[in-house]
Amino acid sequence: MAYELIEVRTEAGKVGVVQLNRPKQLNALNNQLMDELGAALKAFDADPAIGCMVVTGSEKAFAAGADIGAMASYGFAEVYGGDYITRNWETIRQVRKPVIAAVSGFALGGGCELAMMCDFIIAADNARFGQPEIKLGIIPGAGGTQRLPRAVGKSKAMDMALTARMMDATEAERAGLVSRVVPLDKLMDEALGAALTICELPQLAVMAAKESVNRSFETGLSDGVMFERRLFHALFATADQKEGMDAFVGKRKPQFRHR
Ligand code: CAA
Question: PANTHER family this protein is in (predicted)?
Answer without folding.
Answer: ENOYL-COA HYDRATASE, MITOCHONDRIAL (PTHR11941:SF54), ENOYL-COA HYDRATASE-RELATED (PTHR11941)
